[in-house]
Structures are given as structure tokens and as C-alpha cells.
């Protein structure tokens, strides 16, 4: 509903779609969304079939994102897709390839922190200008997943198409705590906090450090310091009636330069940069540290700097930037190609934590090295009838 309200400022919403009829009807009749005139669908393909629709906004659970997004691009639609963009490392490659195949279409990822000039953009600029000196450690505090369960299998509500909600995911009985917002705490549909908040804070960290381009990334990811709320065997939960994403972890990414990035559930939610000249902390509420207190970046954060971060476009809100790219072309500030680098780090964190050991990664070939068990976790075959389209 929040995304739809914002999209309505830039165009007419002609259709809404949800596998839960309660949701689609509420949106269809909302005075800022459907205004009682939009068509409501249960099957997103009916939206993609329409020639009078230019833009689609994908706010499904994570395990549906890439399939819908690729089909939207192939139908000629511009795409706004919420974070986290992907469920697996394989999906990263698929969506990147699909966007390369359709450069004429705008595609933005819903990482709105890239639009926050007072905090996150200032932090990125401070780091990029070298004002912290050589950054040797960055800590991404993303909190841990909640714990809960066991939950009972129930009869799905009549207004919910549970089979279509599952879609590409494995078939399983309906549990209220698997569905809607709570899907985040099950590896079957998401990555817990590794992807939920990692998609935000790891993104800012890599962007600031210039490590958001293809071929960059860590070479070792240590997941030994991670706990899960249910037993795991060979990287898979052994029970299916409780939340299973990690609730307590400190995963360490090591880069060829000697940089360490800690992805942790401990401490404050936010990003801490530690450099040879100073430390800087930033989150959605504040930006603190000596570089800020003493205004080290005074006169060093110009409109040209903002335009550079915005890929040559003016600084403006997240949705406004997207619709500018729809009109003018070019890449949005939150583009697929840099976000894939973020999602590589998010998924590698998850795999290392689930296995409880160090895994090795080749950022150039984007392969896990010398570990067949970990490599097998780079992808997941979709359920029959919900396969990816050919890219």
C-alpha cells in the first residue's frame, strides 16, 4: 500500500493484483490507489498482458520477485521491485542478464536509503572522498530474526490462494506465520535479516567503498559464529514448523585488500566505517562520529557530488528518480547491477551461516570455490509449473 500510494503521484493505477483478495480489494478501493476504478486480479500475468500498462510495481514475497520481474521486462514493462531483489545467487545472474537484454526499460530496486542526502549519501561521500583514510573495517548491524514456533498447519483463508502464494517454493501446508509479513523468517521464501536489512546496509557499505561493481566482492566469508533457532543438517533446517532464519550471528567477509566487513545481529542497527583517520556511524536516525562533529566534509559535498552519486541525474526522491528514468532513460540511483553485488554478499552470508563455516568465493566468476555442498546452495529448482522464463 505504501509503494502504491507513492506511485500514484506519477501516473494512473489501472490494476492491482494480489493472491489475497482482501489485499487487492483494499487497494482497489483506496482513494489514493485504485479509487474504485482499477481492475483487480489474482494472477499477475493478466496485468502483464495489458498493453495500456507501462510500469509494474512488484511487492510480493521475495521468492516471487525474479520470476515476475523477468516476465514483466519481457512484456515491455518498466519495473519497480522491492528489496531484497533475489532469493538465490543464481537469481542474481538471471535478473542481471534480463536487464542487460532490455536496456530500454527502467528497473529500480526499492533501497530507498540511496536517496537519503542528510545521512546515507553524506556518509557515502565522506568515505569516497577518502576523509576517513583507508577503511579497514566496516560493520553492518542488521539485527537478528525473531524466533517462534512450532506453528500448526491450518486451513487457508477462503480469500487466499495459498498454492499461488507458494508459487516457486516447495509445497507445504498453510501456516499463518509462513504467510504475508512473516515469510521473512523462513529460508524457503527469504533470507531472514541477511537479506531483509542486509539489502539496505550492505548496499550502502559496498557503494561507499566502491565495491558495488561486477567483479568486486569478498573472497572469504566466515559463518562459524552463527546460531539458528532450529536444528540444521547440511545447511538445511530439520523441522518445518518454526521460524528458521538466523537470530544471532557475526558473519565476517574478507576482501583481497585486507578489508573486513562484519554482518552482525549484535549492537546498533546501522553501518560503522572504521578508517585510519576516523570512524563514522550512520543509520536511519543519525550520522555520528568525529568527521561529522568537526564537519570534515564542509564544502566537499556539492551538487556535482550528488549528481555523480545519482548517475548524472538530479537528487530527488526514490520514486521520482525511477519515473525520471522511465521518461528519460539511464540508470536509477538504485540500479539492478550494483544491487546484485549487494545480494551476492547477502546470500553468501546466509550460506556460510547455515553451514557454520568459512566458504570461498571468486568474485570474477561468481562461483563458490572448492565446496560442493555450499555450491549446491547457490540455486533452488522452482516447483513444477513455476519455472523461470528463458532469459
From TrEMBL:
UniProt keyword annotations, A-Z: Oxidoreductase
Enzyme category, top tier: oxidoreductase
Q: Domain Gfo/Idh/MocA-like oxidoreductase N-terminal spans what residues?
A: 5-106
Transmembrane regions: none
EC code: 1.1.1.18
GO terms (molecular function) for this protein are:
inositol 2-dehydrogenase (NAD+) activity; nucleotide binding
Q: Which SUPFAM superfamilies match?
A: Glyceraldehyde-3-phosphate dehydrogenase-like, C-terminal domain, NAD(P)-binding Rossmann-fold domains
- One Pfam family it belongs to: GFO_IDH_MocA_C2
Q: Which segments constitute the Gfo/Idh/MocA-like oxidoreductase bacterial type C-terminal domain?
A: 153-386
Q: Which InterPro entries match?
A: Gfo/Idh/MocA-like_OxRdtase_N (IPR000683), Gfo/Idh/MocA_oxidrdct_glycsds (IPR050463), Gfo/Idh/MocA_OxRdtase_bact_C (IPR043906), NAD(P)-bd_dom_sf (IPR036291)
Q: Supply the name of the protein.
A: Inositol 2-dehydrogenase
Amino acid at each position: 500500500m505504501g509503494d502504491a500510494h507513492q506511485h500514484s503521484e506519477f501516473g494512473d493505477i489501472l490494476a492491482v493484483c494480489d493472491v489475497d483478495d482482501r489485499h487487492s480489494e483494499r487497494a482497489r478501493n483506496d482513494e489514493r490507489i485504485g479509487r474504485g476504478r482499477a481492475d483487480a486480479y489474482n494472477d499477475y500475468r493478466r496485468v502483464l498482458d495489458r498493453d495500456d500498462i507501462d510500469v509494474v510495481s512488484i511487492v510480493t514475497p521475495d521468492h516471487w520477485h525474479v520470476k515476475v520481474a523477468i516476465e514483466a521486462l519481457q512484456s515491455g514493462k518498466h519495473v519497480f521491485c522491492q528489496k531484497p531483489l533475489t532469493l538465490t545467487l543464481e537469481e542474481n545472474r538471471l535478473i542481471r542478464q534480463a536487464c542487460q537484454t532490455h536496456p530500454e526499460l527502467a528497473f529500480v530496486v526499492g533501497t530507498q536509503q540511496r536517496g537519503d542526502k542528510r545521512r546515507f549519501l553524506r556518509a557515502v561521500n565522506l568515505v569516497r572522498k577518502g576523509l576517513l583514510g583507508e577503511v579497514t573495517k566496516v560493520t553492518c548491524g542488521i539485527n537478528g530474526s525473531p524466533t517462534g514456533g512450532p506453528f500448526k498447519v491450518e486451513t487457508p483463508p477462503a480469500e487466499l490462494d495459498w498454492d499461488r502464494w507458494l508459487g516457486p517454493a516447495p509445497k507445504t501446508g498453510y501456516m499463518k506465520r509462513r504467510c504475508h509479513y512473516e515469510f521473512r523468517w523462513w529460508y524457503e521464501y527469504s533470507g531472514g535479516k541477511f537479506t531483509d536489512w542486509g539489502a539496505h546496509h550492505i548496499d550502502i557499505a559496498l557503494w561507499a567503498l566502491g565495491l558495488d561493481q561486477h567483479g568486486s566482492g569478498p573472497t572469504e566469508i566466515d559463518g562459524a559464529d552463527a546460531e539458528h533457532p532450529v536444528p540444521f543438517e547440511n545447511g538445511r533446517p530439520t523441522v518445518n514448523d518454526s521460524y528458521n532464519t538466523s537470530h544471532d550471528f557475526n558473519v565476517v567477509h574478507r576482501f583481497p585488500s585486507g578489508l573486513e566487513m562484519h554482518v552482525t545481529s549484535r549492537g546498533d542497527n546501522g553501518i560503522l566505517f572504521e578508517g585510519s583517520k576516523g570512524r563514522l556511524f550512520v543509520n536511519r536516525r543519525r550520522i555520528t562520529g568525529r568527521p561529522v562533529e568537526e564537519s570534515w566534509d564542509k564544502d566537499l559535498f556539492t551538487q556535482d557530488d550528488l549528481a555523480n552519486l545519482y548517475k548524472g541525474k538530479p537528487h530527488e526522491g526514490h520514486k521520482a528518480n525511477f519515473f525520471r528514468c522511465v521518461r528519460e532513460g539511464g540508470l536509477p540511483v538504485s540500479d539492478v547491477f550494483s544491487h546484485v553485488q549487494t545480494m551476492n554478499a547477502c546470500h553468501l552470508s546466509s550460506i556460510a551461516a547455515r553451514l557454520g563455516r568459512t566458504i570461498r568465493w571468486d568474485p570474477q566468476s561468481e562461483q563458490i570455490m572448492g565446496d560442493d555442498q555450499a555450491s549446491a546452495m547457490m540455486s533452488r529448482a522452482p516447483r513444477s509449473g513455476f519455472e523461470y522464463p528463458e532469459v
